[in-house]
Structure formats: C-alpha cells, structure tokens
Amino acid sequence: MNARGALIALGSAACCTLMAGTAMASPASGSYGSAGVSTDSHVRSQLPTSTALTVSAARVVFGHEQTERLTVTVAGPAGVAGDIPTGQVTITVGSVVVTTVDLVGGKATVTLTASQLRPGSYGLIASYSGDQANYASASDAQHLAVICAPATANG
Asked: How far apart, in whole angstroms, are the C-alpha atoms of residue 102 and residue 66?
C-alpha cells in the first residue's frame, strides 16, 4: 500500500500516526493553548488583533488641526499571552492617507498638521499592517469635523 492509500485507509488517525516503513510527511506538532495558539517556540502562528482609534476632540477649527490627538491601540486576543504588535499603522480618510506612524508597545499617538484637512466631516480609520506574529486589522471609523473659525463680533 502506498502512502496515499495508507492515509485513506487510516482516515483521521493518519494525522497522529506514522506507519513503520512508510515515508510520510508528518503535520506540525506542538502544544496549543485554548485559543489554538502554539505554546512551543518552534511552531508559530499569527495572533488575531484588534485596532482601536480614538480622537481627542470630535471637532477642530480649520488651521488648528494640530490640536487634534489621534491615539491608536493594537492588541491581541484577551487572555492570550503573545507578542506585542509591532510595525506601522496607517490612518486614512477613504483612500487618502492622512499619516503613517510606528507602533511602540502596541500603541501610537499622532497629531495632525495645521490645514491638513479641509473643512468638512471625516471618518478616520486606523489600519494595522500586521507583523510576523500578529494579523493585520483595522479600526472602526471615528468621526472628526473640521470647522471654519467662528465669526467674532467687532464692537
């Protein structure tokens, strides 16, 4: 019987048993935690992540966007010890890149530049690109309104 025939004959048991005298590739072995993540250092899989974006104010005056602080946090699954996400996060409005920033300890904070966004309403999204140990993810859109300066009364 060839290796394929042996696999068919054994069904799922073939995943755990090597037959004497038959050369077959064995699946990766290792210890896996409750989330299906390997606990062995030689077996590695990526962890799912979640990305959260917060804005310091929902409204800023045009020309003063630098007062807006954007904070991004990228985290792995709760209760699973793993690698802290590294790499970059890109903040976009639609298909336009507002800024790209490096994560430090799974977090990043950035301020906008003056007159970077025209007056209007924006949905900002932070997209984490992933790394060797963590999958990519994106935040929900966060609303930011850029308004014209209020008129002042003379007199």
From this structure: 18
Cβ–Cβ < 8 Å for 88, 34 = no
124 located within any domain: yes
What would the pLDDT profile of 63-79 be if each residue is shown by its tens digit? Answer: 999 999 999 999 988 76
In a domain, 10, yes or no: no
Number of domains in the chain: 1
Mean pLDDT, rounded, of the chain:
76
Decide if 83 is inside a domain.
yes
What is d(CA 62, CA 46) in angstroms, rounded to the nearest whole number? 41
Q: Identify the pLDDT of residue 28.
A: 37
